[in-house]
Amino acid sequence: MGEKRKLEFFVLRYVPDAVKGEFVNFGLVTFVDGGNGAELVDVRFTKDRSRILCMDPGVDLDVINALQKEIVEEIGRGRDRAVLMRRIEDSFSGVVQLSSTMPVLSEKAVAEEIEEVARIFLEAAKVRRVREPAGRQRILETMRNAFEDAGVLGLLGPLAAEPYTKAGDPFSFDYGYNTGTEVKLFHAVSMRASVDPAVLLAARYGKIEPEMARITGMAPMLTAVVEAELDGNRSEVAFAVEMMEENKIRIARTTEMPRIAEMARTELRA
Q1: Considering its fold, how many domains does the chain have in total?
Q2: What does the alpha-carbon distance between residue 221 and residue 213 come to, in Å, rounded to a whole number?
Q3: Is 11 inside any structural domain?
Q4: For position 180, what pLDDT does the model report?
Q5: Residue 160 and residue 98: Cα distance in Å, rounded?
Q6: From CA 59, how far away is CA 158, in angstroms rounded?
Q7: Among positive and negative, which fits the CA dihedral 91, 93, 96, 97?
Q8: Closest to 175 (Cα-Cα) out of 228, 212, 223, 214
Q9: 190 φ, ψ to 5°?
Q10: 237 shares its domain with 179
């Protein structure tokens, strides 16, 4: 087995309308932890700009090209990561945004790991795309029905992340309850169209979990409920699942919801 190295990935997103919040992934920035901190080692950009043009026909591609050149010039300079990331976002007035940090412990060669992650986030899917809200909505409906059948739906509710992050954070876990020693959380995550929701949840929960434990004095336990038919052999799905597991997130298929709901009934003494 090779020595594991810690890599950190940030996805660059083109966001033409901050109100709608719609975006297109167009770049991947990679840092590797070294003796002197995280060092920028690679930048990848999608060669296919058609998705950007489809979302924003009036986009100035020269701006995107200038950004690419600017970031590439930073490789190996050892600049402070936070300063570089802030400069990227500030320079483009919010049109270019960065994803949350995606840390990965890898035994693979750095170049091989970068190739795999870049393929997941930058290459157009070769299968028919399914709108994410529809996939997630189906999972939510299955969860709701299972909790309702177990007679505990009225005892559960969404749990806001704001007390454990920053004021104004709009994110909430779909369902939650506490047993007195544990905070049980359940969140619907569809990966049929894209693994982005799973990867972002993993990155966010890795920061929320210790704060929730500190503030509540209980042990948080998050279960991500995914499609029953999800193909775990797809490399991007395997990557997302590994990230969730590394950040203490359990994965359950929708077919497991009756068992999960029955456990909730027992723990809540409903």
Answers
A1: 2
A2: 10
A3: yes
A4: 92
A5: 23
A6: 38
A7: positive
A8: 223
A9: -95, 130
A10: yes
Residue 19 has a pLDDT of: 67
Looking at the structure, tell me whether residues 34 and 146 fall in a common domain: no
Residues 69, 44 share a domain: yes
Residue-level pLDDT at 36: 64
C-alpha dihedral, 208 to 26 to 111 to 86, nearest 10°:
-50
pLDDT per residue rounded down to tens, the chain (270 residues)? 456 778 888 888 888 776 676 788 888 888 887 666 678 888 888 877 777 777 777 777 777 777 778 778 877 776 677 777 777 777 666 778 888 888 888 777 888 888 888 888 887 554 444 444 468 899 999 999 999 999 999 999 899 999 999 888 889 999 999 999 999 999 999 998 889 889 989 999 999 999 999 999 999 999 999 999 988 888 899 999 999 999 999 999 999 999 999 999 999 986
Last residue of one domain, picked from the residues 122, 155, 182: 122
Domain that holds residue 217: 132-268
**DSSP symbol at 145:** H
184, amino acid identity: K
Structural domain contains residue 127: no
Which residues make Cβ contacts (< 8 Å) with residue 204, sequence separation at least 6? 100, 161, 171
21-37: b (≥16 Cβ within 10 Å) or e: eebbbbbbbbbbeeeee
Q: What whole-number distance in Å separates Cα of residue 38 and Cα of residue 35?
A: 8
At 130 the three-state DSSP class reads: coil
Residue type, 198: A
- Say whether both 155 and 104 belong to one domain: no
Note whether 153 and 113 are same-domain residues.
no
